[in-house]
């Protein structure tokens, strides 16, 4: 397959925002921009070798996932994570809890944004193997089969991780949010 610069630009235009959003949910916005660029450098270099065994989107998400895993495993990122308030500690979760006071109707949009950020903080607190599956399923809205292809897992493993990830997420939401904030 001979890929022209125009074809790559179209792929970049079609997928850049989705990949950035996905990576931001996995590793945080601070590192997501650079990692998104690295993903598309790899996509550009490897595009001619893409055989079409899977959907193009699945292939790109897989590259992004591998880059995210490498980043999450890097000692520099792990050191930053220990300093980051979004680590797995209960203190960080409590600090980022979503306790909301009664609000006026004009503040609903702000409250919605705070809820989304709160939810995102809880997702980021999930162990990596559950976080990836939850983000791909709940936030990227991909089917389990596609998630299995992206992560190189069996469909049963995806279902199991999704079930456990959702259970952990629900446990955190119940412990740190008022019921009306997560229902």
CATH architecture grouping of the largest domain = Orthogonal Bundle
> Which range best describes the helical content: under 10%, 10-25%, 25-40%, 40-55%, 55-70% or over 70%?
over 70%
Low-confidence region ranges: 82-104
Anisotropy-based shape: globular
* Mean pLDDT across every amino acid position: 79
Question: What descriptive keywords fit this protein?
Answer:
mainly alpha; Arc Repressor Mutant, subunit A; 183 residues; globular; 2 domains; 10 helices
Task: Summarize the model shown.
The protein has 183 residues and is mostly helical.
Write the layout of secondary structure elements.
Elements: H1 5-27, H2 29-46, H3 56-73, H4 75-83, H5 90-95, H6 108-124, H7 128-139, H8 144-151, H9 155-176, H10 179-182
Helix pairs in contact: 1-2, 1-3, 2-3, 3-8, 7-9, 8-9
What report would you give on this structure?
It contains 10 helices and no strands. It has helices spanning 5-27, 29-46, 56-73, 75-83, 90-95, 108-124, 128-139, 144-151, 155-176, 179-182. The protein folds into 2 domains: 1-84, RNA polymerase sigma factor, region 2, helix turn helix motif (Rna Polymerase Sigma Factor, Chain: A), CATH 1.10.1740; 85-183, Orthogonal Bundle (Arc Repressor Mutant, subunit A). Residues 82-104 have low confidence and may be disordered. Helix 1 (5-27) crosses helix 3, helix 2 packs across helix 3 (56-73) and helix 8 (144-151) crosses helix 9. It is mostly helical and 183 residues long. 75% of the residues lie in helices and 0% in strands. It is globular and about 55 Å long. The longest helix has 23 residues, at 5-27.
